[in-house]
């Protein structure tokens, strides 16, 4: 089972789904007092986290919305409400009903040529099919993306890209998943979509967890929690605790997993997310069982079953009450019709006497309303500017933390692969001395070889520590490091002419730590290859700044090589791999007159 996406419902941006202050209860109680268009729009605007918290009342609202949209002939609104109703059925695991409602919505929206909304509906349909028919799910998601890309609607395509990444992650295509999810995250930042950012970071965390990169997964969950806390997204905050719990559960840290499941269960109980609360109790029991704590496992299993039974009973009772209300309504409709007729006659008389008064009051209210609206609009604008600035600062902080973490993880891997293997070689060489008889001269020669290799390892270790201790590396740092290396080479390699050329006025040139260590390693490897294999007598290192790009060339006058036969050797594959890590262009030109290695990347 794909642990991180089966339970959570990430389609936060449905058709026109703006967050508003309308609650289920207030809308439910005011159905008969508002104009049909007002009711329809408020139903369309209901956020996902709101309508899944009160399923039975939401069903009544959606049915009423379908009736009003049909009566008023508003086909686009009908398609939107059918789509939201289908999402509610998916949340209840009633997938056949969800499928039928969503297909009806798509048919109507396509007939009305509302391709943006049809594209979003296709995306929602594909997402809901993920656990039943993944291939169809991917097909409908791609169809929705095609519509939205043709419409060039960034706001609409944003969540569909995100959820398409979820399906790709579930299909084990994690690199493709990260591509679409990070593409969606970039759009969210452009749109300043604070709600979507919480979901975007959470989805990327899920995908990194699928790659078993739990450390980065936790970083992205924390980023999501920071955004959701700032905007008071209660549903998102609650879901993030489950994300964190499941990461610890996959790491088999069951104690920590239980801690976060319990936090989620408490919030789910507070905000009436019954399905999410059930899910937490189910997996708390599972974690206790894995810890051989069968007593607590049984207790939470019973809580899960009790909540499940309670939810089923409430749904049954609500349906009975709804039928009773319908019966009583039909019985009283005739009495109400007669009463309304009498009231209309009286109202007509009163209306004549009060028309002038209403005109006067209306004018006064109109003027007062204009003043109030101007004041309110300015106040909202000021608040929006403050929130946007706060969100921008939070995003910059999160982005810097994530980039620095990824760079340090990459350098740590280099430290493990490079220095670790060198130390292993030294240990093995020393151990082997015990099993052979050496003359004094051979023993000294062996010690000299090990000593030389050890010094090289210490140098590599210092270079790596140099990079890890810096959040950014200036051009002067890299130039100084390269100069020291070349000067050391000049001293130890007599007969070879070294030349190092670099530009002046580089105060504003800065690299991240990963770029710095990879560039330095490529220069080292290129010079070593020129000395050991090409038998060069002159080596030139050039640094050139071209606009926002840094271009580095290592040129020698050695004997060159045939790339078709030397491709895998002499450290070439290592240099190419490092160039790929920093998104650099990598080029090798070689002939019998020498070799030129060039890398170019954006600073």
TrEMBL record:
Pfam families: HATPase_c, HisKA_3. Residues 519-603 form the Histidine kinase domain. Its EC number is 2.7.13.3. It is an enzyme of class 2 (transferase). Residues 313-340 form a coiled coil. The chain crosses the membrane at residues 356-375. Keywords: ATP-binding, Coiled coil, Kinase, Membrane, Nucleotide-binding, Phosphoprotein, Transferase, Transmembrane, Transmembrane helix, Two-component regulatory system. GO terms for molecular function: kinase activity. SUPFAM superfamilies: ATPase domain of HSP90 chaperone/DNA topoisomerase II/histidine kinase, TPR-like. This is histidine kinase. It comes from Mesoflavibacter profundi.
